[in-house]
Amino acid sequence: MICLINLKHITKTFNTKDGDVHAVKDVSLQIDEGQIYGIIGFSGAGKSTLVRCINLLEKPEHGEVIFDGKDLLKITEKELRIERQKMGMIFQHFNLMKSRTVYENIAFPLRHLKMDKEQIDKRVMELLELIDLVERKDSYPSQLSGGQKQRVAIARALATKPKVLLCDEATSALDPHTTQSILQLIKKINKELKLTVVMITHEMAVVKEICDRVAVMENGRVVEEGDIVSVFAHPQMPVTKNFINTTNNLGKIDELIEANNPLVQINENQQIIKLQYQSGNTSEALISKISRDFNVDCSIIFGNVEVVKDSPIGTLITIFTGDHENIKKALQMCRDNDVVVEVMKK
Amino acid sequence: MMDFIIQIMPNVVDRFDVFVESIYETLLMILISGSIALILGLIFGTILVVTRPGDILENKFIYTVLGKIVDLFRAAPFIILAMILTPLSQLIMGTSIGLKGAYIPLIIGTAPFCARQMEQALSEIDRGLVEASQSMGFGPFEIIWKVYLRESIPSIIRGFTITLISMIGLTAILGVTGSGGLGVFCINYGYNQYNYDILWVSLAILVLLTILVQGIGNFLARKTRH
Ligand SMILES: Nc1ncnc2c1ncn2[C@@H]1O[C@H](COP(=O)(O)OP(=O)(O)O)[C@@H](O)[C@H]1O
Ligand SMILES: [Mg+2]
Predict the structure, then answer these.
(1) What are phi and psi of A12, to 5 degrees?
(2) Is A236 found in the same domain as A201?
(3) What is the ipTM of this complex?
(4) Do residue A18 and residue A132 come from a single domain?
(5) Burial class of residue B132 (count of CB atoms within 10 Å of its CB; 0-12, 13-18, 19+)
(6) Which domain holds residue A281?
(7) What is the A23 CA–ligand 2 centroid distance (Å)?
(8) Does residue A281 surpass a pLDDT of 60?
(9) Which residues of A touch B224 (CB under 8 A)?
């Protein structure tokens, strides 16, 4: 894999009247060519600041920004502008030019390149087809829906044939249905044009849908990073677990346990166990094996299958009933079968 | 018909050639001083916007100094400003009275007002548009031209309209310092000789002119807004 964006020890502090705001603290990330890379975090975590450090809309006071082999902090302003043409960016609020038509908006970044009218026209028409808005080319942004506006913004960002598309909360102003259509479009662009995508979002559902890798940000730091499936399967940090729980009901169980709900009340010889498995149909055989071999009863109180990047991750919340030693052995057997085990209550 | 006109505005008819000449002078003042003041206002307004803190050509010194100068001229009562400017007009135009004497005070009296109007118009541009353009690799001057100015055309037209209308008022005040146009016509033939018909008719002309400018401004602003 070729590394397209390499951020090394990026630090960005804003000096405000109310003191220094450490928006990004010593963040290092590598984004490979062709990847869809998600950066997730709650509002204020520093995601926007970090992504803006990639195209130097914000200049980090420490660190290196290596894009396509060049250290962007070491080149001149003029060279930087040329590098920026290789990076498209889209925003939460689209940022289209109100006084220009859809066509003119898409042509806008081409106007300062040395391209003649016909070349520009050809490129704009290609892009209009890509975003499926050919018939709206003479409309003004005020006449478009949110989803259509974001499509136009995507076309505009792609006009100069960039190597990467930076998306800062690109779907956060859209309804769930429109969000899906924009995500599908980004997926398609990633596949067909081999375009690298950096997705900033606070929605785990977005990451789950299209990202290959994800970095989780909290208080200006990347606290967890990895392949999307493994992050989903084995989240390490509380904030990551929190985000994953927003896409299913697993968080509810913790609440029930916390509140000592009758549903999760257990006896001395019982334990509440979370089992997580990644490959298809192992769970059922496992559960019958547990009762057979270890004399432990296993009842399921909650089950969930998460599809991450087309690969399923199953989660079962179960109550194990049996002798303490036997339960311990049963859990070890589960671990030996690549099932992630977590004792939630005993 | 003619009898009726002569009856209600005898003095206007009496001085008809001077009256027409005065209207012509007023229009010329507004056209020439207006054009120059609008251009200066647009330039200064743009500088104020792009040098403000956090903007594309941030420059605290220019922003503060220019802002103070603009405010100083705006705070000065126009009639006193016009008197103070007579030597400057002498120097540049060779006279401080008549049509030629009107240009300098009108320009200097209006350009700062226009600059603030333009500053306000350009401030309406969403920060996001500027960032989007920067992310596409546009430099500051391209952004000024293609985003700040181009995208705020309707607001600029509205600011121009307000500026021109305030200038119409100032042309009349200039009658006091002996400049040309309807102002001095009113003072010499109207006010000083108790010919109220001259004042009324001049007032009507200036009101009509204001309505006309406002109408054209509204029309153009509407045409350019999408
Ligand atoms: N231009 C700025 N000036 C001062 N503080 C800022 C600026 N931009 C962002 N911040 C602060 O930096 C922190 C991170 O912001 P941001 O990167 O926008 O977070 P996110 O995109 O994750 O919501 C926040 O505390 C925010 O208030
Ligand atoms: Mg943000």
Answers:
(1) -135, 125
(2) yes
(3) 0.88
(4) yes
(5) buried
(6) 250-345
(7) 11
(8) no
(9) 99
